[in-house]
Design brief:
With 69 residues, the chain is mostly helical. Helix content is 77%, strand content 0%.
């Protein structure tokens, strides 16, 4: 299995953030009936998206480090 690249991590972070937003919109449409289920899922998706975003930034900075040349 190939290691993930900057682009892969960025797309995964964007997808997780979009999922969290979709879950919060679904929660609004249901009138908070499924709040106890959807809110933890949305928070988990945001945390996972944040982790992917940080990992993508680390990879980008590591690849662009001009002091190693």
């Amino acid at each position: 299995m190939k290691p993930w690249t900057f682009t892969t991590y960025t797309i995964a972070a964007f997808a997780c953030s979009g999922l969290a937003l979709a879950l919060l919109i679904l929660n609004a449409f249901t009138g908070n009936e499924m709040l106890s289920t959807l809110l933890p899922l949305a928070i988990g998706a945001l945390v996972l998206g944040g982790i992917f975003s940080v990992r993508a930034r680390v990879l980008r900075y590591r690849n662009r480090d001009i002091t190693r040349r």
